[in-house]
Specification:
- By secondary structure, the protein is an alpha/beta fold.
- It is built from 6 helices and 7 strands.
- A 7-stranded mixed sheet has the order 3-2-1-4-5-7-6.
- Strand 6 and strand 7 form a beta hairpin.
- It is globular and about 40 Å long.
Length: 193
């Protein structure tokens, strides 16, 4: 059986909320991502945001944004916690790819930070990127690995399938902008509308 993301993340948030979404959402990376996201929101000026893999909400919860926000995560525990932190925002617990097939999930700006690297099945990974693009009315921001897999072993909750640029190209995306690089990933902006 493959890696169970939902169980892993729910247990992580339930038992170690201080670690939360991990090192990429703490310290200098947290400050960096907050600044990046505020710049993206100021640039795109969305009326709605869909945050896929919202996690512990550390990156987004202080965002200066007065539109409609919806966060999705596989962890029911963290979703309940987020509902208490930001009562004016909406949150859904579930698998984004499955939800995208049955629900009307659309927003001007779709955000997916540090989630694609945790998709352990290549087809699920590609379906995830396809669903992110399909949910976006104006722009999608996501990050994935920038280059081919290095030789050293990663954490068991991380998976590599292909560079994000290859994924986008093979899904028919002709243009995207690399906004930043961190932790072996490229953060890309795709204009969809």
């Amino acid at each position: 059986m493959g890696f169970d993301n939902a169980s892993f993340w729910d247990e992580r948030y339930r038992t170690n909320i201080e670690l939360g979404s991990g090192a990429g959402s703490r310290g200098e990376f947290l400050a960096y991502k907050r600044e990046l996201m505020q710049g993206i929101v100021d640039r795109v000026r969305p009326r709605s945001i869909l945050d896929v893999g919202c996690g512990d909400l550390e990156v987004m919860r202080e965002l200066a944004f007065d539109g409609a926000y919806a966060g999705i995560d596989v962890s029911p525990f963290v979703i309940e916690r987020n509902r208490r932190l930001r009562r004016e925002w909406s949150f859904v617990a579930g698998d984004f790819v499955a939800l995208a097939e049955t629900e009307d999930l659309h927003a001007d700006l779709v955000v997916c930070l540090d989630v694609l690297i945790h998709q352990h099945d290549r087809e699920t990974y590609r379906a995830f990127v396809r669903a992110l693009l399909g949910a976006s009315r104006a722009a999608a921001v996501m990050n994935g690995f920038a280059k081919h897999r290095p030789t050293r072993k990663w954490s068991p909750n991380v998976a590599f399938h292909e560079p994000i640029a290859q994924t986008l190209r093979e899904l028919g995306v002709e243009e995207w902008e690399v906004l930043a690089s961190y932790r072996r990933t490229a953060l890309v902006l795709v204009k969809t509308g």
